[in-house]
Design brief:
Elements: E1 4-15, E2 22-33, E3 37-41, H1 48-55, E4 63-68, E5 71-72, H2 78-88, E6 89-92, H3 104-115, H4 121-131, H5 147-159, E7 165-169, H6 177-194, E8 197-201, H7 205-208, E9 213-218, E10 221-224
Parallel strand pairs: 3-8, 3-9, 6-7, 7-8
Antiparallel strand pairs: 1-2, 1-4, 4-5, 9-10
Helix pairs in contact: 3-4, 3-5, 4-5, 5-6
């Protein structure tokens, strides 16, 4: 069985047309292996958030394909995209996006509720919350915990369905430096403990220290490492 969980091949994304046409991504190709902790860096407007949206199936490419866990997602109809996304992908955002009127436990269980696989959901959510250090906060309302705790809950929510890939979009962007460092170390420890693939988009590469790989997006193209060097279609 292949250990490649993501293949992005010849990915292009064009917004607008004519004089307003913008090529946000251009011929992007790379693969990611199971358990890799990958950092995606680039300046504002470089195309890194567009890339994350394509991988996260939140938008469709103009051409090219995204293959997740062996499934060519370009062949999935709109009625199947949502369920596939919820099953295979976990999301962590810059803002935790917790629902304030729900408890921490209820927020973490949401992806299970959406998926319709609620069996053992409570126990699984409690176990993950214990792993991220929130076992004493499970019954707190989301608006009664700190920003750092909320992001820990968001990490737990991203992991609850045991996704193939967790996608994190600027996960430390709304945190102070100390809390950001704690959040980074938590994600890395969970990646190692669970052999969980993470793809993290960030402006703050230095916060993340060593990663398995760094992908730089510049003018819509992908390069391996922090200096522009055209990528091969290989991990």
């Amino acid at each position: 069985m292949s250990d490649i969980v993501l293949e992005v091949k010849d990915l292009n994304k064009i917004y607008g047309e004519g004089d307003t046409k913008v090529q946000a991504l251009q011929d992007v190709s790379f693969t990611v292996k199971k358990g890799e902790f990958v950092i995606v860096v680039g300046s504002s407007g470089s195309g890194k958030s567009t890339l994350l949206n394509m991988i996260g199936l939140l938008d469709r490419p103009t051409n090219g394909k995204v293959t997740v866990d062996g499934v060519d997602t370009s062949k999935l109809g709109d009625n199947k995209i949502s369920s596939f996304r919820n099953e295979k992908l976990g999301f962590i955002f810059q803002f935790s996006n917790l629902l304030s009127d729900l408890t921490v436990l209820e927020n973490v269980m949401l992806p299970r509720n959406i998926q319709g696989t609620e069996k053992n959901a409570v126990n699984d959510a409690k176990e993950i919350l214990r792993a991220v250090g929130l076992d004493k906060k499970i019954n707190k309302r989301a608006n009664k915990i700190s920003g750092g705790q909320a992001q820990r809950a968001a990490i737990a929510r991203g992991l609850i369905n045991h996704p193939t890939i967790v996608l994190a979009d600027e996960p430390t962007g709304n945190l102070d430096s100390v809390t950001a460092e704690t959040t980074v170390q938590l994600m890395k420890s969970m990646a190692k403990k669970l052999n969980q693939t993470f793809i993290v988009v960030t402006h703050e590469k230095q916060q993340f220290g060593n990663a398995d790989r760094v992908i730089t997006i510049k003018d819509g193209r992908a390069f391996e490492g922090e200096e522009p060097r055209q990528m091969e279609i290989a991990a």
